Amino acid sequence: MKHRIVLWTVVLLGSVAAAHGQTPGNIFQATLGESGQRTAELSTEQLRGILADKSAVVLDARPFREFAISHIPGALNVAAKPGVPMSAYVSDVAEIGRLLHGKKETSLVLYCNGPYCGKSKRLAEELLAGGYTNVRRYQLGIPVWRALGGVTEIESDGLRYVVANDRTTVIIDAREADVFRSGTLPNARSIPRSGVLEGKDVGEVKRAKDDGRLPMEDHNTRLIVIGRDAADAQYVAEALSREAFHNVAYFGGSFQEAQAALRP
Q: Do 31 and 46 meet the contact criterion of CB atoms below 8 Å apart?
């Protein structure tokens, strides 16, 4: 994974330099820069702006399970096009039409699994053929989003799947320590929201790095943050991503909803 991130970084920088005749000053402004594409690409900086001002509908072009396990916060997902093999997976344009109430002029941004993934491109082509007029892609996708410090959101279905199938996952409980001690999720570790400070290597996060609560010998480890609510969980998740953990998701509901998701 680390080698791929390095390779993609080189590709991104090289693409922008070739397009503009200069070396880019900011990797967040880079795109893959592929030629011959019918839909424009967005940079990470542009996507962040769109998510902040809600100026477009962001569609995750991957299967529902992948979306449920980790998606860019604010993105939506629709069912697969019927009758298509998994190797040629594409979202169902008819479902997108229902989601958008038939408004084909709606600004759309698509993303998938990064530079080597074809799902966004296939969906873009189907949308254009269906008469959609404002389609762009964040072709860097989930891998580069994470590499550049972006957290993802996990749904109830994704939480159940990960807990059942990935024994290396570390669950972080961001509620206060006394509440944590009264009951938490199986094998969860406490990093209280109140102790997470602005800055790097400070407060409760620094202590968690030193005492083993955070997996300091494998920064690829999947971290899932559960909080009193989504806002607390997201705050702690973003703090962890700034500590070079690049596979961080937060649960977009309450602690009680997380508990309910994991009940047999």
A: no
Residue 54: band (very low, low, confident or very high) from pLDDT cuts 50, 70, 90: very high
Single pTM value for the model: 0.90
**Residues sharing a CB contact under 8 Å with residue 45, sequence separation 6 or more, in sequence order:** 26, 28, 29
Instruction: Give the orientation angle of helix 156-165 with respect to helix 255-262, to 10 degrees.
Output: 50
CATH architecture of 2-147: 3-Layer(aba) Sandwich (3.40)
pLDDT of residue 264: 86
Gap between the Cα atoms of 253 and 230, Å rounded: 5
Beta-bridged to residue 136, according to DSSP, are 40, 109
The CA distance from 109 to 127, in Å, is: 11
Cα separation of 251 and 233, whole Å?
A: 7
Q: What is the dihedral of CA 113, 114, 119, 121, to 10 degrees?
A: 160
What is the spatial distance between Cα 146 and Cα 248, in angstroms, rounded to a whole number? 8
The beta-strand segments (E) located in 61-154 are 108-111, 135-138, 152-154
What gap in Å lies between CA 249 and CA 237, rounded to an integer? 6
Domain 152-262: CATH architecture, name and number where available: 3-Layer(aba) Sandwich (3.40)
E-strand stretches of the chain: 40-41, 57-60, 108-111, 135-138, 152-154, 170-173, 189-190, 223-226, 248-251
Residue ranges per structural domain of the chain: 2-147, 152-262
Q: What's the Cα-to-Cα distance from 36 to each of 39, 115, 143, 209, rounded to whole Å? A: 9, 15, 23, 46
